[in-house]
Design goal:
This protein is an alpha+beta fold. It is built from 14 helices and 19 strands. Strands 1, 2, 7, 8, 9, 10 and 17 form a seven-stranded mixed sheet that branches. It has a four-stranded antiparallel sheet with strand order 16-11-18-19, with helices on one face.
C-alpha cells in the first residue's frame, strides 16, 4: 500500500538549514512539506553545535562582510566559490539579527552582542549563546518559528529513498515511512535537499547518526553534480574518552586555546614539538599540525589507552576553569569528569564536509527545480572551512534555498508523478522483507565506517585509497543479498539497507576524488603528494553516468575585483 502527497515545496532534512528553508518558503506563500527521517528540529548538525557563529555584525569592534569574505577565501586554499562565499558573508549579519529578533539570546556584554576571536578570523566576529548552548537554542527558535506557519506540514520518521524526475525536472520523491513501513510518494513543484553532510560515515565523528550523505546520493542518482567531495574536515581534538553524553565532542577547542590545555602522549609527555609544532605552554599549533602529530604519535604506539592523546587542564586553577566553562563544569562532574584532577582523551574526528551539491547563486543544482541548503551545498568553503561558518551557512543558505524554491513554485506545473515514481517504489518493495544471507546492513555500515576512518581519513595515500575503493566495491556487490528483516513497522534493518546504499555511493565519490587529486591542499592531505600544487587549483566535479562516477575539472568561480 502506498500513500500519495502533493506540495509546492518539498524540503528533505529538518535541521537548521531545512527549518530555515521551510520558514522562508512559507513566508513567500508556498505550501511546504518538511521531512526528516528522525525528529523534526532534533536531528542534524545544528542542534548538536555548541560553539560559535561567524558574522560581521561589528558589535565588539568595527567589521565588514568583506573582511569576513577575505578570511573565508584564505581558509579555502584557492578553491572557494567566491560568489557563493560572498552571499554567505554579506547575508550572515541579517540572519544573526533575525535570530536575535526571534529570541535566540546571543550572549551579551551590556548593550552589545559578545563576539569571540576564532581561529582564522582577523578580529572578533563569532557570536554564541552562553555555555555551549548555541545549537540547541538555535534549533529551539527555528522549531518555534516553523510551528507558527500553518502552511508547513511536518512529517518525521520519513526516509527519502529516491528523488523522482520528470521531463528533466525534479518532481518529487519516494520515501519509506519508518513507523508503518508504508511507501510514500510526494509530488512537489520544487525540492530542497537539506540533509547535512556525511561525517557519520566515519567511525570517529562529531555528527548526528543520520548525517550519512543521503542528500549527495539522492542528488547524484537524480543527475545532479557534486563538487569537492575529497575535502572532509577533521577536528584534531575530538572527545574520545571517558564517555560524554549530550555534549559536543569538539567542545574542548575554545577552552584549549583560551586556557592552554596541554596535549600529552601515553607517557604523559608533550609531543607536538617532535613534529615541528612546539606549543610553549600555549595553544598555538594549527589544526592540521595537531591532527598530524596526534595521528603519528598514536601510530608509533605512544597513544592513550583508547587510542588517542591526553588533553590536560590539571595545571589550570579551579577558578579559571569555572570562569571559562561556567555551568559546564557541573555537567562534566555529573559525567564523572573532574578537570582539576584528570585529563581526558582526544583524537581527530570527522567534523564537516566542504564538498556537496554543485549550485548556482540561487542554490539551484544542475537539475531544474532542485535546490540545496546548508552543508549539502558544495563550493562555498573550498578546501577548508573557516571556523564559525557552519551555522552561518545553515541559516543563510537555508533561507535563500527556501525563498528560491518558493519563487519557482507558482510557475511550475503540478505533475502527477505516479508513473515516474513506479521504478523507485519497485526498488523499495524489492528491498523489503528479504531474508538474505551474510552480514546485516547494520554490520556493513560499521565496516564501511572503519574503511573510511583507516584509509580515507586525515592522511591518505594511493595505496590506502585503492584499498578503500576495493572494500567499498566488495560491500556494494554484497548489498543486494543483505537481509532486511521481515517486519513492516520500525524495520531498522531496512532503513539501514537504504542508508548503506547511499553511503556506498558517497564513499566511492570521496575516495575517487581523493585518489585523483595528487596534491595536499586544505583538508585533503596526501602523504605521497605532500605539497600544494598550483596546477590543481580547480574544483573536481562528479557525475553519475551508467552507474559509474565520472570526474571533470571545474573552473573555480571568482569575483571581479570590484565585487569583493
Amino acid at each position: 500500500m502506498s500513500q500519495y502527497l502533493e506540495t509546492d515545496v518539498l524540503i528533505i532534512g529538518a535541521g537548521g538549514a531545512g527549518m530555515y528553508a521551510a520558514i522562508a518558503a512559507a513566508e513567500a506563500g508556498a505550501r511546504v512539506l518538511l521531512l526528516d527521517k528522525s525528529l523534526i528540529g532534533r536531528s542534524g548538525a545544528t542542534v548538536m553545535a555548541q560553539m560559535t557563529v561567524a558574522a560581521a555584525i561589528g558589535e565588539e569592534e568595527p567589521d565588514d562582510w568583506r573582511f569576513h569574505l577575505k578570511d573565508t577565501i584564505a581558509a579555502g586554499r584557492g578553491l572557494v566559490n567566491e560568489p557563493l562565499a560572498r552571499i554567505l558573508c554579506e547575508t550572515g549579519p541579517d540572519r544573526i539579527w533575525q535570530m536575535e529578533e526571534w529570541g535566540v539570546g546571543w550572549a551579551r556584554k551590556g548593550n552589545h552582542i559578545t563576539q569571540a576571536h576564532a581561529p582564522g578570523h582577523d578580529r572578533k566576529r563569532c557570536v554564541y549563546v552562553d555555555f555551549l548552548n548555541t545549537g540547541p537554542a538555535s534549533a529551539r527558535i527555528l522549531r518555534n518559528q516553523v510551528r507558527r506557519h500553518d502552511t508547513i506540514r511536518r512529517i518525521s520518521d520519513l526516509f527519502v529513498t529516491d528523488l523522482v524526475t520528470q521531463d528533466g525536472r525534479a518532481a518529487g520523491a519516494v520515501a519509506l515511512h519508518l513507523e508503518t513501513g508504508q511507501a510514500v510518494t510526494i509530488a512537489a513543484k520544487a525540492t530542497v535537499i537539506a540533509t547535512g553532510g556525511l561525517t557519520s560515515m566515519y567511525s570517529r565523528n562529531s555528527a548526528s547518526a543520520n548525517m550519512g550523505g543521503d542528500g549527495f546520493a539522492l542528488g547524484l542518482r537524480a543527475g545532479a553534480e557534486l563538487i569537492d567531495m575529497e575535502f572532509v574536515q577533521f577536528f584534531p581534538i575530538g572527545h574520545l574518552a571517558p564517555r560524554l553524553i549530550g555534549m559536543d565532542p569538539i567542545m574542548w577547542d575554545p577552552f584549549r586555546y583560551k586556557l592552554g590545555g596541554r596535549l600529552l602522549n601515553g607517557d604523559m609527555q608533550e609531543f607536538t614539538q617532535n613534529y615541528g609544532a612546539p606549543e610553549d605552554g600555549k595553544y598555538v599549533v594549527t589544526r592540521d599540525a595537531a591532527t598530524y602529530a596526534i595521528v603519528k604519535e598514536v601510530a608509533a604506539g605512544r597513544g592513550s589507552p583508547h587510542g588517542g592523546a591526553w588533553l590536560s587542564f590539571e595545571h589550570i586553577p579551579d577558578e579559571d576553569l569555572r570562569a571559562a566553562f561556567g555551568p559546564v563544569i557541573d555537567r562534566l562532574a555529573a559525567a564523572g569528569i573532574d578537570l582539576t584532577k584528570m585529563p581526558i582523551e582526544v583524537y581527530p574526528i570527522a567534523h564537516y564536509h566542504m564538498g556537496g551539491l554543485r549550485v548556482d547563486d540561487s542554490l539551484a543544482t544542475s537539475i531544474a527545480n532542485l535546490f540545496a541548503a546548508g552543508e549539502a551545498v558544495g563550493g562555498a568553503n573550498g578546501a577548508n572551512r573557516l571556523s564559525g561558518n557552519a551555522i552561518t551557512e545553515a541559516f543563510v543558505f537555508g533561507e535563500l534555498a527556501g525563498r528560491s524554491a518558493a519563487a519557482i513554485a507558482p510557475n511550475a506545473a503540478g505533475m502527477d508523478i505516479r508513473d515516474a515514481a513506479a521504478p523507485f517504489l519497485a526498488t523499495l518493495e524489492g528491498a523489503s522483507g528479504r531474508p538474505g544471507q551474510g552480514p546485516s546492513p547494520t554490520a556493513a555500515i560499521a565496516a564501511l565506517q572503519t574503511i573510511l576512518q583507516q584509509d580515507v581519513g586525515p592522511f591518505r595515500t594511493a595505496e590506502s585509497l585503492n584499498r578503500a575503493i576495493a572494500g567499498i566495491t566488495a560491500l556494494t556487490a554484497a548489498l543486494p543479498d543483505m537481509p532486511t528483516g521481515t517486519q513492516a513497522a520500525f524495520n531498522q534493518q531496512l532503513a539501514d539497507w537504504f542508508g548503506l546504499r547511499n553511503m556506498l555511493l558517497v564513499a566511492r565519490s570521496i575516495a575517487t576524488a581523493a585518489l585523483a587529486r595528487t596534491e595536499s591542499r586544505g583538508a585533503h592531505q596526501r602523504e605521497d603528494y605532500p605539497g600544494l600544487d598550483e596546477a590543481w587549483t580547480y574544483n573536481q566535479v562528479l557525475r553519475l553516468q551508467g552507474g559509474e562516477i565520472q570526474l571533470a575539472r571545474g573552473e573555480v568561480r571568482r569575483l571581479a575585483p570590484e565585487e569583493a
